[in-house]
Amino acid sequence: MDGAPAFADGKGPGIVLLGPDQISPYHANGALAPVDDALKESRDRFRRFGS
């Protein structure tokens, strides 16, 4: 199962890559969650690469 039907059924993937034009409908339906807490310990390692 993939895409919108999987999210609607609660069986979608834990992480998904969405383009800017795809985000609004999922956000409006409450299907997106912040990843800040999950990445808290790794955040500084990613910042080094962007500097």
Characterize the structure shown:
By secondary structure, the protein is mostly helical. The protein has one domain (3-50). The protein is built from 4 helices and no strands. The protein has helices at 3-8, 20-28, 36-39, 43-50. The longest helix has 9 residues, at 20-28.
Mind sketching the topology for me?
Blueprint: H1 3-8, H2 20-28, H3 36-39, H4 43-50
Question: What would the principal axes of the Cα set say about the shape?
Answer: elongated
- Total helical segments: 4
Tell me roughly what share of residues is in helical segments.
Answer: 40-55%
Task: Let me know the average pLDDT.
Answer: 75
**How much is the radius of gyration in Å?**
14 Å
Order of helices and strands: HHHH
Count the domains. Answer: 1
Task: Please report the total strand number as a whole number.
Answer: 0
Beta-strand percentage range: under 5%
Major sheet summary line: none
Q: Please identify the structural class as seen in this structure.
A: mainly alpha
Distance between the termini: 39 Å
pLDDT < 50 stretches: none
Looking at the chains present, what oligomeric state does this protein adopt? single chain
Notable traits:
51 residues; single chain; mainly alpha
Short description:
The chain is mainly alpha-helical. The chain has one domain (3-50).
